[in-house]
Amino acid sequence: MRRAGRAAQYAALLAYLAFLAFPLLWLLSTAFKPPRELGSSHPTWIPRDPTFSNFRQAFDEQPLLRAGLNSLLVALAAALIAVLVATPMAYVLARRRTRLARAVSGWVVVSQAFPFVLLIIPLFLLLKNLRLIDSPAGLVIVYVVWALPFALWMLTGYVRAVPRELEEAAAVDGAGRLRTLVSVTAPLLAPGIAATAMFAFVTAWNEFFFALVLLKTPERQTLPVILTHFIGAEGVADLGPLAAASFLATLPSLVVFAFVQRRITGGLLAGAVKS
């Protein structure tokens, strides 16, 4: 019975992994198929005549490199600012159990339920008054505001897993709050900071709605917006180049996750064992 249960668990895990991998594998397969295979009524997993023409056509039709650079700069800036702002805020919420701290924590959770549509109009008017419409800086501000509640909630849990005794020992040695946060707490929060930064980066990299509304100049548009240009006015998609460009757009997220996966795993286990 134990072996049967373990086999069932492995089978369920493999089925779940196949479910998650299917879109990416099908996207990769479509990116290498020639036009005659894309229109076939009997699609295959592996292209019969693989070709790089879809990638060449994608780069010829749309400025993917420039759009990718725009997305990279905006996503990196949003992730960095979100982490720098959320870390000290999370420290205060975790260490000071006051009514105000509990109210802020509750508001952080409630704010995650707000849909994009409710936020875009006030954000648009605010950025218009600040003259940040059609500006990467305005888009960074929006992404930071959008990622900050979840980043704050996430880092608060990591701070609570850090033993207070370490901070008390630093205080005995004469370290102040800021020095304790920078020299003692922050190094122990490295897994949580890495996970939070990855979340903010991936969110900003994949975001489409705010970028579509706030950026008007073609030279400033991000990669998700440029991908929509492969769809014609009548809704007919240029499937091959679209699949190739979409596959390239997923690579940065995969690379970021590959670099920080060990820290994320360590962060998930942080605080599980208490001394």
Describe the structure.
This protein is mainly alpha-helical. It has two domains: 1-50, no CATH class; 62-269, MetI-like fold (Orthogonal Bundle), CATH 1.10.3720.10. Helices cover 76% and strands 0% of the residues. The protein has helices at residues 2-31, 35-38, 53-61, 64-95, 99-111, 116-129, 136-161, 164-172, 177-188, 190-206, 209-214, 223-227, 239-269. Helix 4 crosses helix 10 (190-206) and helix 5 packs across helix 7 (136-161). The chain is globular, with a radius of gyration of 23 Å. The model is unreliable at 267-275 (pLDDT under 50). Its main location: membrane. Residues 68-260 form the ABC transmembrane type-1 domain. This is Carbohydrate ABC transporter permease.
Helix and strand topology:
Layout: H1 2-31, H2 35-38, H3 53-61, H4 64-95, H5 99-111, H6 116-129, H7 136-161, H8 164-172, H9 177-188, H10 190-206, H11 209-214, H12 223-227, H13 239-269
Helix pairs in contact: 1-13, 3-13, 4-7, 4-10, 5-7, 7-10, 8-9, 10-13
Membrane topology: Multi-pass membrane protein
Protein name: Carbohydrate ABC transporter permease
Organism: Streptomyces roseirectus
